[in-house]
Amino acid sequence: MDWNIDRKISSITVDNCSTNDAMIDLLWDKLDSTSLMLGGDLFHMRCCVHILNLIVEDGLDVIKVGVSAVLDPRYKINVLEFYFRLLFPTTYKEDVEKVRALCYKLFKKYQSPSSMMEGIGDSSSQLSSIDEESRSKYDVYMLRESKRSRTIDTAK
């Protein structure tokens, strides 16, 4: 070895690819283990970041549905209704309806192309917005939830 690289290597860190294992075996045969630090005990190390990344990706795939449910505004309204019922037993209905109305108002404002495009010009066709079907599903959901909360209250 012309550059004496065999005397300058202390360790090699690789991920868990099988070609890396084969390369490490070839290098190990070429190098003198007495010239390596600690007799070559630290020569081959695995990169745990790659393995950790795979574990995290698998974990995120498992909890993806739960995370999307928590981010769903309908879930948040249900949670809000539950806690308002505990904290403000006499006025929780009105407070929840105010929040629902505000959410609905924000949803309508978000859907309005004119509010999104103020001062930009006539490029509203380029923006993607929630279609009529989604909007009607939201309306149906809001009506169903308000009826459901009324039936739960009358059952008590």
UniProtKB/TrEMBL annotation:
Keywords: DNA-binding
SUPFAM superfamilies: Ribonuclease H-like
Residue ranges, compositional bias (Low complexity): 119-129
GO-annotated molecular function: DNA binding
Domain hAT-like transposase RNase-H fold: 66-110
UniProt region (Disordered), positions on chain: 114-134
Name of the protein in its database record: hAT-like transposase RNase-H fold domain-containing protein
Organism: Rhododendron griersonianum
